[in-house]
Amino acid sequence: MIIDPVYHYEAINVETQQASPASLLWWMKHSIAMRKRFRAFGRGIIEFLLPDNPKVLAFIRQYEDEHILVVANLSRYAQVTEIDLSKYAGCVPEDVFSQNSFPAVRETPYMFTFAPYGYYLFLMRKEEAPVVVAEDMPMLKVTGRWENIFEGSALERLERKILPAYLKNCRWFGGKGRTIRQVTVVENIPIPENASRAHMLFLKVKYSEGPSDTYVLSLSFASQGKIGGPVEEFVAEGVAVKLDYDWLQVKAEKILEESSQAIIARLSVDGEEGIIFDSLYNPGFRQRFFEIISRRRRVRGMNGELFAYPGKMFRRILAEGGDHTSSRVLRAEQSNTSLLFGTSFFFKLYRRIAEGTNPDMEIIKFLTEKTKFQNIPPFAGTVAYRGDNAEPGIIGLLQGYAVNQGDTWTYTLDAVKGFFDRVLAKKQEIKAVLPFTVSYTNEEHPGIPPLMEELVGGVYLEMARQLGMRTAELHLALSSSPDDPDFAPEQFSLLYQRSLYQSMRSLARKVFQSLGKNIRKLPDNTRAEAQSILSREREILTRFAMITKEKIPVTKSRVHGDYHLGQVLYTGKDFIIIDFEGEPARALSERRLKRSPLVDVAGMLRSFHYAVYSSFLQHEGVRGGSGSELEPWIEPWYHCVSAVFLHAYIQTAGHAPFLPKRHDHFQLLFDVLLLEKAVYEVGYELNNRPEWLLIPFRGIESILRPAEPPPGGVLHEHIHS
Question: What is the rounded CA–CA span in Å between residue 256 and residue 326?
Fold first, then answer.
């Protein structure tokens, strides 16, 4: 009979194991689900590898195109080993449980460190679009200086062939879905470095249809040496190489680690070969750019000048921060390119530029220098361009670096995963609990049931509450300057409300027309729901039209414009709000328009909805077979978190004029803005991720579902009583 309390039946039994997501029982369930996902574990071939540490076992399971790497520490002590994985060079190991990506495999041995009895299971996934310095890369030939590529036939080839192909492969290029008709270098600004020059180009891109765009791209030249000349050894990027193609490969590998789109073309200058590449991947250029801001430099170009200036906080950040002489390009590229200078400064280069004030710079500078709102990276400087006959345009924004643990989207996905784990662990206790919804504004307290607080997690609910507070504080700060015409709040009018309706109606008709044309192409599991949403088009338009019935006595002001969990950084105890550009597809003038701050609130609630659904889809893929048990808990999580967020927002905003006082006005305006956001998402997902259309479909259904009005008619009296 077992009497040891560690292994006693009262401690080791199905009930206690089921209640703990960290138990052996749940580990076995994870493993079984994972084995069902990957066929290589049950069939195919096995290939044993030879680590340099005999205490580590390593092998590859392969079936068709599926390759699984298994490495395990057989010792009770921590171990380290290197394994030759050159056969998989260019692949990215992806953990099969968490789906997190590890550093890509190279030709050199791959190092692993293990905890006692630790192990890894990796799916060897092919790396996307690697850059290869190959002989078939476009070649330019000039005489004299490398800068002669900006003249004559070399410039013509650069504009006609090389730059259009290069732009199409850049993550920050927004015209991938359009046909490029012409690329023209309309401005060339030489930026001097220590021993050479980089050239900042403005590229005017004309398309077959629609308006043209202007993009910023800087070019530098890296020499390889004379063809057939003497072979000399030197050090490049910390590696001893010979003055031949070895140097080019070292430089290309260095660029490859930071971006897959840095090398633009090969270049031969009087027999001296090398490459032209994006200057942002040159440390000397980055440091020179920083100096242009710190020293208020002006640099003349062909048709205008580049000028820069530091903000009021620049010297303070410089004095308080650490090293700023080292720099790197951040890997996460979207519509811009971001640089990090040590641990002090963060610089954002706006790749697509336009005349006029950039709302990102404008709002960050306003909040930093004219308000007390501190939950942003402070404004530290800007780089702008003024053409000879044009209004200045912002090229880049320098900010203080905000130390963080990642964005709130990632933090939320982890929180939702924990929620689903707890639901499954407690399913025997809660199987009789039915899904429910929580009203956002009916109660003085959101009224979250204790069971839901336990399942969602008190820490995350507190974070949602704090995020609601910070969002309200942001809106209070943005509407705190009545004497500044760019930020002074303005009253709603019936004419403005009618214009909102016209905009919403145009959006809905465009989206539903596109949805109807493409419904046959949708995945089978979303086609029926798409048909259901299409049948409710008239109902949606009727809901939008309700905003024109009665004037809502509320103000509009400057807002974030593209507010979601990915635009908020999590510090571990607070939040930092970033990226005030608004929706990149809109014109600058449109992004600077004043709107109801509830636009941002609606955007954040839709982001909560996306987070719980995307986590569910991932969780279902990992666990397998648990979808039917978890799906009823999606809406309860969303409603609980949204209620806590929105309640904290309303409490913090208080009697702010941008918040409707009457409950019916609040509910009408908020529901219309929430519905507009969900309809917009349908159009976005239709063009980008049709398999995700289910999320905005469910969002629209939830918004159209009638809600019971609360007792009383005044929102603030009910909330603040």
Answer: 19
Q: Kindly calculate the radius of gyration of the chain based on its CA atoms and give it in whole angstroms.
A: 29
Terminal-residue alpha carbon distance, the chain: 62
Which structure tokens are listed for 6?
A: 């560690």
Q: What pLDDT score does 441 carry?
A: 52
Distance of CA 78 to CAs 22, 98, 237, 376, Å?
22, 22, 32, 41
Kindly state the average pLDDT of the residues 3-27: 68
CA dist., res. 449 & res. 643, Å (int): 12
Are β-strands 139-142 and 263-269 bridged in parallel, bridged antiparallel, or unpaired? parallel
Q: Which of 466, 483, 473, 477 is nearest to 363 (CA)?
A: 477
Q: Which amino acid is at 102?
A: F
Which token pair is 67?
């390759």
What is the full DSSP assignment across 240-288? Answer: EEETTHHHHHHHHHHHHHH-SS-EEEEEEETTEEEEEEEGGG-HHHHHH
Partners of 120 in the beta sheet? 71
Contacts for 10 with CB less than 8 Å, ≥ 6 apart: none
- Structure-token match 């701050």, residue found: 597
- Contacts of residue 294, defined as CB under 8 A and 6 or more positions apart, other chains included, come to 310, 314, 318, 381
CA–CA dist 147, 131 (Å, integer)? 24
CA distance 667 to 673: 10
Q: Are 534 and 571 in contact (CB under 8 A)?
A: no
Kindly report, residue by residue over 673-714, the tens digit of the pLDDT: 999 999 999 998 888 788 889 999 999 998 998 654 433 344
Q: Name the 3-class secondary structure at 235.
A: strand
Cα–Cα distance measured from residue 521 to residue 230, given in angstroms and rounded to the nearest whole number: 61
Q: What is the pLDDT of residues 630-659, one digit of tens each?
A: 888 898 899 999 999 999 999 999 999 999
Q: In residues, how long is the chain?
A: 721
Concatenated DSSP letters for 658-701? TS-SBHHHHHHHHHHHHHHHHHHHHHHHHHH-GGGTHHHHHHHH
By C-alpha distance, which of 157, 282, 287, 164 is closest to 223?
Answer: 282
User: How far is 674 from 601, CA to CA, in rounded Å?
Assistant: 9
Which amino acid appears at position 418 of this protein?
G
Which residue carries 């509320």 as its tokens?
554
Which own/partner contact pairs does 501-510 have at CB distance under 8 Å and 24+ positions apart?
501/544, 501/545, 501/547, 501/548, 504/544, 504/547, 504/672, 504/676, 504/679, 505/541, 505/544, 505/545, 507/676, 507/679, 507/680, 507/683, 508/537, 508/540, 508/541, 508/544, 508/679, 509/537, 510/683
Task: Report residue 228: phi and psi, to 5°.
Answer: 75, 5
Backbone angles phi, psi at 609, to 5 degrees: -65, -40
Give the tokens for residue 29: 């369930």
143, with CB counted inside 10 A (0-12, 13-18, 19+), is: exposed
Burial degree of 703 (CB within 10 A; 0-12, 13-18, 19+): buried
Name the nearest CA neighbour of 171 among 109, 222, 121, 128. Answer: 128
Measured between alpha carbons, how far is 130 from 262 in angstroms, rounded to an integer? Answer: 11
DSSP characters over 486-528: TT--EE--HHHHHHHHHHHHHHHHHHHHHHHHHGGGS-HHHHH
Which pLDDT band holds residue 202 (cuts at 50, 70, 90)?
very high
8 A C-beta contact, residue 360 and residue 580:
yes
Residues sharing a CB contact under 8 Å with residue 227, sequence separation 6 or more, in sequence order: 271, 272, 273
> Which of helix, strand or coil describes residue 421?
helix
Nearest alpha carbon to residue 329 among 340, 318, 314: 340
